[in-house]
């Protein structure tokens, strides 16, 4: 076990020097989480918008399901993805287990409900303002969805950032389906867990610092986009 002061100094040195292992882990983390966020938005935004503007039997049950799925336990998601991608599973022939693709799938499943639920609320609030205008123009549902998503783009970007923040900090699911394999599936969260358990605090602290910077950056972007959305609304 390293002395904390020494470990912190080494961590700063690793970050400042752009250590190759550190850069590789951070790059993979960003690639996996950004890919998962993009897929979640492609699925979640249209679905959330459709539910927001449509009234149908069982809608309240769907809303309850959306909110419940926001709290999906990561390890359960990881287990389910593992069972599907393992050799004995229905998708085992694809050979995706213990690859970045499997990690992207797990993160996508985790954050899609977040995107759906939050975007549904944003779009529903906006639709209440435009409903009469849409009826007068006789727009189809997809035309309404397109118009609402574009008009709410700044608020929906904050939804995407919220999903990314959830994905990049996730550890349980990606550990199960990725295996934390060095130079292949090791991301920031799993590397921090491993290096801490080994007592190698320098790399763990360095990755923690990078993760904190990313988290602060995401929060700053969210706040900036919220302010932009408010200015846009009153423009």
From TrEMBL:
Name listed for the protein in its UniProt record: Tungstate transport system permease protein
Source organism superkingdom: Bacteria
GO biological process: transmembrane transport
Sequence ranges assigned to domain ABC transmembrane type-1 in this UniProt record: 26-222
Pfam families for this protein: BPD_transp_1
Protein's cellular compartments: Cell membrane
Source organism of this protein record: Roseovarius pacificus
Keywords: Membrane, Transmembrane, Transmembrane helix, Transport
A GO cellular component annotation in the UniProt record: plasma membrane
InterPro entries (UniProt xref): ABC_perm_TupB-like (IPR049783), MetI-like (IPR000515), MetI-like_sf (IPR035906)
Membrane-related topology note: Multi-pass membrane protein
PANTHER family: PERMEASE COMPONENT OF TUNGSTATE ABC TRANSPORTER
NCBIfam families listed in its UniProt record: ABC_perm1
Residues passing through the membrane, by range: 30-54, 61-85, 97-118, 156-181, 201-222
Entries under Gene3D superfamilies matching the protein: MetI-like
Family membership noted in the UniProt record: Belongs to the binding-protein-dependent transport system permease family.
């Amino acid at each position: 076990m390293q002395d904390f002061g020494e470990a912190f100094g080494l961590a700063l040195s690793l970050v400042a020097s752009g250590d190759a292992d550190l850069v590789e882990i951070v790059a993979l983390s960003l690639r996996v989480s950004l890919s998962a966020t993009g897929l979640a938005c492609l699925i979640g935004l249209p679905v959330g918008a459709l539910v927001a503007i449509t009234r149908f039997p069982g809608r309240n049950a769907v809303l309850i399901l959306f909110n419940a799925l926001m709290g999906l336990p990561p390890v359960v998601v990881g287990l389910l993805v593992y069972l599907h991608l393992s050799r004995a599973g229905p998708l085992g022939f694809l050979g995706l287990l213990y690859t970045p693709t499997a990690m992207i799938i797990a993160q996508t499943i985790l954050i899609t409900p977040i995107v759906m639920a939050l975007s549904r609320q944003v779009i529903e609030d906006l639709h209440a303002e435009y409903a009469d205008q849409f009826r007068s123009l006789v727009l189809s549902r997809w035309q309404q969805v397109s118009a609402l998503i574009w008009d709410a783009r700044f608020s929906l970007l904050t939804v995407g950032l919220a999903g990314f923040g959830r994905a990049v900090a996730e550890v349980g699911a990606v550990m199960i389906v990725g295996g934390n394999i060095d130079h292949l599936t090791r991301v920031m969260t799993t590397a921090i867990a491993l290096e801490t358990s080994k007592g190698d605090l320098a790399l763990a602290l360095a990755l923690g610092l990078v993760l904190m910077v990313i988290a602060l950056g995401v929060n700053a972007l969210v706040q900036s986009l919220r302010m932009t959305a408010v200015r846009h609304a009153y423009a």
